[in-house]
Amino acid sequence: MVNKGFAAVIIMSATAGGVQADVSKLCPQWTHSVGANVSGQGVIKAANSSRPDRVVGERTLPGDVKYSSGSFAVGDISSLMLKSSGSFSADMLLGAAMFLQASQTPVSRDIQEIVSEHFESYWD
Amino acid sequence: MEWTREEMQVFLNENLLKENLGAVVQELQEMRAGRGMIAANHDDSLLQGDVYDKVPCVLRAGGELRLANRRVLLLSNSCDASTDNPRHLPLDLTVAPLMRLDRYAQMLLDKGVSESAVADITSGIRKQEKTNLIYIPVGALVKEEMVALLDRVQSLSIGEFQAAAPSRLAVLTQRGFWILLVKLSMHFLRPHEGVGRTAA
After folding, report:
1. B156 - beta bridge partners?
2. Interface contact flag, B152 A121, Cβ < 8 Å
3. How far is residue A16's CA from residue A31's CA, in Å, rounded to a whole number?
């Protein structure tokens, strides 16, 4: 079952990182550099990072897609929240979160009992 | 569960242009295929969602507790985890155990679960469909498919963590981080529980 209010909570969490002012409140002492290479990806591009430096794993791929209030690059759903603003990206991320939420199913009780009892014997 | 393009689009804003709907649906399909989720990293700071090897963890076996080095997914937020951010009282780190997916499957097979059922379960895990599990694909220094168990998290001090000098196998990409946020939200938060709570 999809709960739009709940998904909105998710989106608020997910999009917080895209706003400089909000992040500075959450993480006021975050000043160090963050860098990463994306495996198998050719381009790493710093964009509207929420931190002083580039965002880990942020990248763009060829084939920018234009939409009603800007443009974004196919290849990273989370980059949308960094490169666009307004209700469009919020709606899109909300939809994506609602989809992911709707696709969730719990592990069955029988399986979970096995995991609970034997997990540590197989965790290496 | 298989989702068609049309079924995915039900969740998206109907006012989106057609071409953008396609891009978002493609993103979701990429996510379910486990692509573009983790990255190699060359930076020293700890980041939420990092995959580490050889972190001292507590194991309970036969009624006894013992410590052993294991692979984990860092759940603590990056701000609190980073030693570059001074704290009067440093917070402990919270980690989720990372188990090899083939070991997870073998465990079920050994305990009598049918091959077809195990295949279904692992397929669902790979598509990020299990509420308490996060699938970590092969990539960077992660050589085998892994699964993080959110119902078995534990904590350790930053000092213990640093003393063990665990090696970072991978960091999450933006897509991976988004999945982590959604998964954490769904596993630990259920605001639509439907229970009326009143003050005593």
Report:
1. B93
2. no
3. 17
